[in-house]
Amino acid sequence: MRNLFLATAFILSGATWAMAEDIIKVPTDKSVTEAIDALQAAVENAGATVFARVDHAAGAHKVDMTIPPNQVLIFGNPALGTPAMQIDPRAGLFLPLKVQAYEDADGQVWLAYEDPKETMDELDAVEKSPVIDKMRGALSKLTSTAAN
């Protein structure tokens, strides 16, 4: 039984490590609100559409709970999303794209997003297509612009 427990713990720790690699984090000296404002401006300046802005901390406050500042911006660009869905319509499960700005326990603010290559890794044809590199490039550029 002890060996089963240790094997399970080892496997789960590996899964957690792998998941952490899928999340790309960009540090910023801005507040969460400033970072999401800057990201929204960068997204709109790039010609993409902002679909929603979710304030998780405000949601927590509504149920008398608290978490550090935490917001998500949901956005997309049909020029990137449509080709992915033409390859495999299930790509729509992972689109539009989203970026989270959150404050960690040390007060550091991060912009975080899941690597689209990892998000769509079960859609082989999409994962191997040039559209993934375009999404990765767009997310990298947008978060870098917003962070600085």
Automatic annotation (TrEMBL):
Residues 1-20 form the signal peptide. Residues 54-116 form the DUF302 domain. It comes from the Bacteria. Keywords: Signal. InterPro entries: DUF302 (IPR005180), TT1751-like_sf (IPR035923). Pfam families: DUF302. This is DUF302 domain-containing protein.
